[in-house]
Amino acid sequence: MSGGFRTGTSTAPGAVRAERARILSEILDDLDELAGTAVRTMRAEIPAYAAQDEAFHADVRDQVMRHYRSKLAVLFEDRTVTLDDIAFTRRAAMRRARAGVALADYINAFRVGQQVFWESVLERAGSSFAGHDAALSLAAPLMRYCDFASTHAANAYMEFQQYAAAEAVRESRDLLETFLTGSAPTRGRQLAAAQAHGLGPDSSAPLLVVIAVLLPRVPGPRGHAVPTGPDQGADARHAACAAIARTWGNGTRTLSVVRHSEIVAVPVLGPGTGPGELCDRLQAIRENLLSEQIVLAMGVSTVIAETAQIPQAYQEARAALEFLPEEGGVAALPRITPFQYLALKADDTARHLIDPRVTSLLAEDRARGGVLTATIRAFAVADLNLRAAAERLQIHPNTAQYRLRRIRERTGRNLRRVNDLVDMLVAIALHDSLPPDTDPERRTPVTAADDRRAGRTYGRSDEPR
Questions:
Q1: Burial of 408 (0-12, 13-18, 19+ CB in 10 A)
Q2: Alpha carbon of 342 to those of 115, 131, 333, 398, 453: distances in Å?
Q3: Is the pTM of this model over 0.70?
Q4: CA distance 464 to 403
Q5: Is 115 helix (H, G, I), strand (E, B) or coil?
Q6: What are the pLDDT digits (tens) for 341-352?
């Protein structure tokens, strides 16, 4: 052991006991100064402690004093430390966890307190053999006390963290259930939780509802499905829930809850933030989770003005999920026009009403890159102005004229007539709402461009480029 101790010379037991009592008594007399030294050392060596306020440091000092007194009682009585001796540790551990102090920093503070106490013992041991032997006799019980107290404190810290996390999850879940009934909290912890998420009664910020569902498999190379790996199941849902909760809006953390087999979130739109930006964030979250083999299908409701509309928005988000293919994606109603929505919701009867000549043309055109479909859309966007449509498509007007003539020859539809143009646009929307591999006339592989035209990335603009 350091300190220049000589252990080869035997000292009378009585002299060692006397020196031990003297050392402990001197420490007891200087306990206040010793506790101050310990706190100053903690602040110097532990940045997390240095960043705290004076009330925190006063609490730490009080805890150091309590530990030093308990330590001295155990040493004076020459006995083993018990839980009764350190019963005060549990509440202190809870306060450190609540203050955001990391467990490693909290345990490091125990080490600092022990070090300061031991250095005080060495200082008071003096240069006599009896003093050295007395200090050595205190080393083992001091180490036992520190190990016992720090282990108990760490367990209390972890218990509180788990409780706090479970309590927060429970409060969030209860809050969501309240909103889903069409009610709103008016007092107590639920009201505080609602305000923390920007969903309080005084909030006027617009909001949405997002539903995410974990998919068990993801398409692999050449269309083969591969398992999502060990993250499949409850752990993956909670990981996705935590990621969605980070889609902050209006300066608050998003309310995000694992509810049965789905994740339900109620993000608030901040000032200057539109639904498009939120949908971009959700798309980015989904893509990031894919790298962790967590595959989601996400439905986003329309924008609502108050929490009383959350039940309606919840049903919208669930309905949006039906628009997604098996591999998932993000179906964002704020980015879908009413026309697209009606097409996506159409049944087989609506598709059977389409002229077979139109169906045949659209199927062939999609397989060849969709140039005719793009021309029809551009012509509609340009208000039936052929030259403007050609400019939009970056083609010669004669080419655009040729395409319109070809469409008329194949389908019997004159796109300069409003009724015929509407029929074609409806047919395109219905045709695009079908997955490419369900098209019996499709012969070419699906491309990224096809996916965009077929609506696989819902909420993206499908205007002609």
A1: middle
A2: 73, 91, 12, 34, 17
A3: no
A4: 15
A5: helix
A6: 777 777 778 788
